[in-house]
Design a protein that fits this description.
Helix content: 40-55%
Number of strands: 9
Shape: globular
Structural class: alpha/beta
Distance between the termini: 52 Å
Number of helices: 12
């Protein structure tokens, strides 16, 4: 049987307490034909020492040190440049993947290619997220249910302004930490946009979708994500990146009359996170005035789930 080489890419930045666990889970994969490429993006803690200790004597793993910090997109681009594998899968430095992740994703991806003839396919692993207070959240994979898989511009529409199709299952979106695809597919799309410090994974998926890409996922959970927070994940950083994403897609969005929607919905989210409800209502009024049906449906669909999720995130855990 064919046993293609799979590159497992791990970006590392100030992950001293978790990177060792992530590397161990990569090296413990039951798919034997792997290489593990770790890119340290100029960590200022003890991450480098942990990485070196984790891969010492391991011929399947190597470390690349950046001379300057490029962010997750730039670090992933380095992995793509250095990858020797026919397939590339990305693991996060604070996650842990189950031993069968690579083998299951690879089988899922190859089976779909054979059955459909699709040229560009992105396969996402399902997972589960753990919060410090004991709350856990399932992360079902996009395209892991149903007969018709998300593909083409319709998936870009969902990521940019939440236009959904009833026959598609969107799961937990398109996180890079769960992604596997052919190296040739990453190269065809042009890798990740290093100008984006957030939502670079959504940007990659949008560009792939606009090329006609297909998005599929595994049914079983294959990784554990541990919630973390930081300055790089602030509401301000998210707003900046999400609006930049809309601006990148301005020509397409204007062609379907959704540019204002994609540009201003992130501001609605921002004012919610900042608890500035007066500004929230002003932004909401502007959106409803232009897209009354779409915005009302979007808010009614996602709003209650978001509020419930936030309550679970912030409730006190048991002693």
């Amino acid at each position: 049987m064919e046993s293609p080489l799979v590159t497992i890419g791990l970006t590392c930045f100030n992950a001293e307490g978790t990177i060792g666990r992530a590397i161990a889970s990569a090296l413990a994969q039951d798919w034997q034909n792997i290489e593990v490429v770790v890119v340290d993006d100029v960590s200022t803690d003890g991450s480098l020492a942990v990485v070196k200790a984790a891969i010492v004597g391991e011929s399947r793993a190597r470390l690349i040190q950046h001379a300057s910090n490029t962010g997750p997109a730039g670090a992933r681009n380095t992995i793509l440049k250095e990858a020797k594998g026919e397939f590339v899968a990305f693991f996060d430095d604070d996650d842990a993947s189950l031993p069968g992740r690579i083998s299951v994703q690879l089988q899922t991806l190859q089976d779909y290619e054979v059955s459909t003839g699709a040229r560009y396919v992105a396969c996402y692993a399902a997972g589960v997220r753990h919060y410090p207070n004991g709350y856990t959240k399932d992360l079902p994979a996009i395209g892991s249910c149903g007969e018709d898989m998300p593909n083409g511009p319709g998936l870009a529409d969902y990521l940019l302004f939440y236009r959904k199709r009833k026959e598609w299952f969107y799961g937990s979106g398109v996180p890079a930490c769960a992604l596997m695809s052919r190296l040739a597919t990453f190269e065809a799309v042009g890798g990740f946009d290093a100008e984006l410090r957030r939502v670079e994974d959504a940007d990659f998926a949008i560009r792939l979708a606009l090329m006609g890409g297909h998005f599929i996922g595994t049914k079983e959970p294959l990784f554990v994500q541990y919630f973390s927070d930081g300055v790089d994940k602030s509401p301000e950083k998210n707003l900046e990146a999400e609006q930049r994403l809309a601006q990148k897609c301005e020509v397409y969005l204007r062609s379907i009359r959704r540019y204002y929607y994609a540009l201003h919905w992130p501001k609605l989210r921002y004012w919610h996170f900042k608890r500035c409800y007066g500004r929230f209502l002003v932004e909401l009024f502007g959106l409803i005035l232009r897209y009354p049906v779409a915005v009302s449906a979007h808010l009614l669909t996602t709003g209650p789930r978001r509020l419930q999720h936030e309550m679970c995130m912030h409730r006190k855990g048991s002693a």
